[in-house]
Amino acid sequence: MRIAPGFAAALDKFALSTLENEHGAVYALDSELRLCYFNPAWYRFAQDNHGEPGISERFPLGTPLLHAISGPLQPYYHDAYVQVLRERMVWQHDYECSSGNVYRRFHQKSYPLANGEAVIIFNSLTITRPHEADAAATQPPDETRYRDSHGLIVQCSHCRRVQRAAQPEHWDWVPAWVDRLPPRVSHSLCQPCYDYYYRFRPGRPPA
């Protein structure tokens, strides 16, 4: 099941066929920020990236959005979508969702329904290229280098780079841990990703 009861009837400016035929992944959240719709492209993307059937099993309709987002990004997206619903504003955001071999950047555009019952989120691929362009920065999955004094490996929630335990200001690309995480991974944001993508809250321009 990928369309919550009543979702199609609540649509105002979009036809359901528009969402269904969109080539990029589209999902929707209800007024309580619970997942209430997935288009076919959502499942194609998950399938192509070895996410199925796990994605559908872990995040079915009705799942609160924050259950599907890692720690440091939760308040950012929560605040953004709450603002979209409250102010009936369209919100746009760029983010990275790479695999171990391919760098991918996406553009997200979120539209509120006029009645405030849902926000519809479109995700469009804007950049894709092999990671070989960054081969010089690629590091092997050496746990002695990355596991900290608490026994954790810290990965950036945005770019997926891994923080060095002894040099926390350094974050490395470790492709083996992008497709398959090692045990006991924590998530944070590296400083460049925080500064560029997340320092300023949605709808509030830099001071």
Compute the gyration radius: what is it?
Answer: 18 Å
Looking at how many chains there are and whether they match, the oligomeric state comes to single chain
What shape does the CA trace take?
elongated
What is the name of the CATH topology of the largest domain? Beta-Lactamase
CATH superfamily of the largest domain: PAS domain
CATH architecture level-2 label of the largest domain: 2-Layer Sandwich
Strand adjacency order, main sheet: 2-1-5-4-3
Indicate the structural class: alpha+beta
Strand content: 15-25%
State the end-to-end CA separation: 44 Å
Write up this protein:
- This protein is α+β, with helices and mostly antiparallel strands and 207 residues long.
- It folds into 2 domains: 7-132, 2-Layer Sandwich (Beta-Lactamase); 138-192, no CATH class.
- 26% of the residues lie in helices and 25% in strands.
- It is built from 8 helices and 9 strands.
- A 5-stranded antiparallel β-sheet has the order 2-1-5-4-3. It has a two-stranded parallel sheet with strand order 6-9.
- The longest helix is centred in the middle third of the chain and has 14 residues, at 74-87.
- It is elongated.
- It starts with 6 loop residues before the first helix and ends in a 9-residue tail after the last helix.
